[in-house]
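Data availability (excerpt). The following record was deposited with the supplementary files.
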Amino acid sequence: MKKFFLSFLLVLFCAGTLFAAESKIAVVDLEKVFREYYKSKIAEDMIRRQAEIYRNYLERLANELKSAQDRAANARADALNIGLADAERAKAEKAAAEAIRVVTEKRAEIELYRSGRAKDMQKLEAEKRNEIMADIKAELKKRAAAGGYTYVFDSSGKTTNNQGAILVYPASHDITLEVISNLNRRASGKK
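Predicted structure:
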């Protein structure tokens, strides 16, 4: 049993040594690359403009709701006004019922619009993030191949202690600026 255990340790040591000899590791601050990539800024601007369009329309719906609520309140007040003739109060009651129906429909329209646009925005953000990440991953593969790196780790990740997941690494293995530079090199002809 002791001989087996020593053999196992020897195999692990040899495998570890072989891994270390054949592996070259790089790190990249993926958050910084994403933030400084010119396409991220374009996508962020486009998403911001789309959100503004949605917000403006939602404001318009909110104003329509406020007007409908005001009409409903006035119609209810008229329906309760004992100074009006019975026929006028009956007419005001019908107007109040109609105004309340409009308010209910407007509230439903606002909620439907709000939830639909929230889903649209999430979908748009995910699409843009995926497009950008595809570009970044392609560039990382190129940089890894050019530098002979077997592995590239993201140094921007945080642990549960809110510390970097990769605590120590040589600065010479950080390819962040190289990746940003190569990605943004294409910006001049595509903005």
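Summary of structural features: The CA atoms of residues 37 and 148 lie 24 Å apart.
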